[in-house]
Write a structure and sequence with these properties.
Distance between the termini of chain A: 59 Å
Strand order of the largest sheet of chain B: 4-7-2-1-10-12-11
Oligomer: heterodimer
Structural class of chain A: mainly alpha
Number of domains of chain A: 1
Number of helices of chain B: 2
CATH superfamily of chain A: Sodium/glucose cotransporter
Shape of chain B: elongated
Order of helices and strands of chain B: HEEEEEEEEEEEEEH
Radius of gyration of chain A: 22 Å
CATH architecture of chain A: Up-down Bundle
Strand content of chain A: under 5%
CATH class of chain A: Mainly Alpha
Helix content of chain B: 10-25%
Number of helices of chain A: 19
Number of strands of chain B: 13
Radius of gyration of chain B: 24 Å
Amino acid sequence: MSATFFVVLAVYAAALVGISVWSWFRTRTEVDFLAAGRSIGPVVGGAVLAATQISAGTFVGTAGRHYLAGVSFALIWFGVWAGWVVSALWVAPKLRRFGALTVPDYVRVRFGSPAAGALAGILIVISYTIYLVAQFQAGGEIALTVFGVPPLTAMLLIVASTALYTLLGGVRSSSYIEFLQTLIMVGALVVAVPVLLYHAGGVRAPLRFLHSLDPRLTGWFYRPRELIAFGVAFGLSIAAAPYELTRFYSMRDERTVRRAIAVSVGFQAIIGACILAVGLLTRALFPHLASQDQATAIMAFEVLPPLVGSLLLVAMLSAIMSTVNSVLLVTGAGVAHDLYGRFVRPDASEAHLLTVNRIAIVVLALLPVWFALQKLGDVQGIVVEQSKFIASFFFVPVVVGLNWRRGTARGAMAAMVGGFLACLGWELTSHAGLDRLGVDAVEVGVATSLLLFLTVSRLTRPAPAEALAIFFD
Amino acid sequence: MIPALAALTLLATPPADTARLVGARIRVLLAGDTAQVEARYRLAGAGASRPVPVRFTAPRLAGQSVTLDSTAALVSGPPALLVRPSVLTARPGLWGVDVDLSTLPGGRIDLVYRVVGRAKRIPLFVPDMSADPQASPITILVRGAPAGLDPAASFPRLVPAGPGTLAARPSQLPDVLHLPGPSAADVGRAADIGTIVLVLAGLAGWGFHERRRARREGPA
């Protein structure tokens, strides 16, 4: 298995370097770097959206939650797909028509306020740093479980390799790499399920075993209320997720964006069903793993044939890298384009901004490594927390802001800060045992954000007509 | 940024300090449709002062019976005994053996059982405690395997380990030993080929789509 894995890894790395170098020679401007020259079609675009969404959070975290909690956790996918529908109908086409480079660009132009854009940039950097913690932790878990490599070494390798292809080719290289990665993920997972069923003795025997092991595995592990909160957090954050929204900018046109979302949901449905089967069947074969986050890596290493297992492990590491890459493109742009380029050196040349962007990417990649080494929770738990923050501060300014003319800059800023603080405060009080209402932090965060957006917008002067024309006329 | 990450630190729940499996050695002797299994588990605990319940589970398959011949415990540290006799229980799809140890600073439990019927799939009892994959050596030895068995197609993957003996050293203890018969389809090879075909088909499909698009948009 190890020899096969390293051969597969070498071939994949060669493909990765080839695509990156090819992209390097086609990246001359900031538009090339951040939006792939707006050349991405629906198939690659859909695969990219799926690869960005299907991260370590899915491969390690979601499979781990199915291992721990069974079938019922699958209901969160409906929240995810509802988020995509909202995005396809009310967000993505308008953003693509606007044709900016970053999401804070949208906030700045839509509300006619550089300050609101800067605030969006800062909040994006904060919440995505949390997201990177989950990705690095998952990478460390896989490396330790399968190869006995210390987590820090694995995390630094992930940072180095991801930074390389992010720095070389920007969105263009990452888009084609993610397309290849999605194909491998889908191929390996689709094949993995029959192999697992073969060793576990079919469908019925493992299900009966799991039911006797813990009836909640085939019934309700979480209360419906908790599952709704998970689904709401994922759905609302997807509808307004900056790293997904940024991908829309790289696509050819609005029609391509809608088709890419449909392709992406198709990929996700296949991957989601396979991940459910992987979690359950791994539990049926290895009922007591030390951590649920080890489930997919153990399954790939111990159950699958060497080539499929190696491909799946490479796809998992690649999923981590692609998500880290997407997040670094967003946070790096947040620092260089939205903060440095707007406030520190507004007269900076494109070449200078590109250099600042690349430096920011390296710095922002290293910061979460320390937090990941502290192992703050299971991977899915960290992803859920991050989704709650994104939904709480971004859903209202993006989704409502794109569809309600009367929204103002002060309203957007109040919504972002208020939503973020409400979510954080509620989460802390819930954790301290003060929550008796059964209301989740994401619901409090989004409700606060919406209330502040509507109220403050009504009380303040509307955004300039020329800013609104781009989105509403 | 730091406050949000610090908040995440506050939200984290510390892992529970519980007993764990630190090694296992399973010997399976096959004779026709019967398998004799001798399983030895090494456990380490957190120095509990009250009896520690340990539950072993294994999948229960139709057309197969399991008889528990003996259980024995040897506990290191303070003298300890099995507090109550271990009993084999049967539930739909699952066999269970419950053992109570008076203390568990560390020690060993042996289970000896016989499986009759469907010898291609031998249930292995797994204790309800986790194992560190790097520090818990697990060995499964199989003797008397049917002629023509492909060890690499079995689960966990077996390799020859001396005359008439096959061995597997998985990183975690599985709850079944699957020994596909010689006539079984080569699932591993089919899976390997299937994955490559799917990936290549995807790439070819995309390439075809892009070529068609380029041809369509080229003249315009």
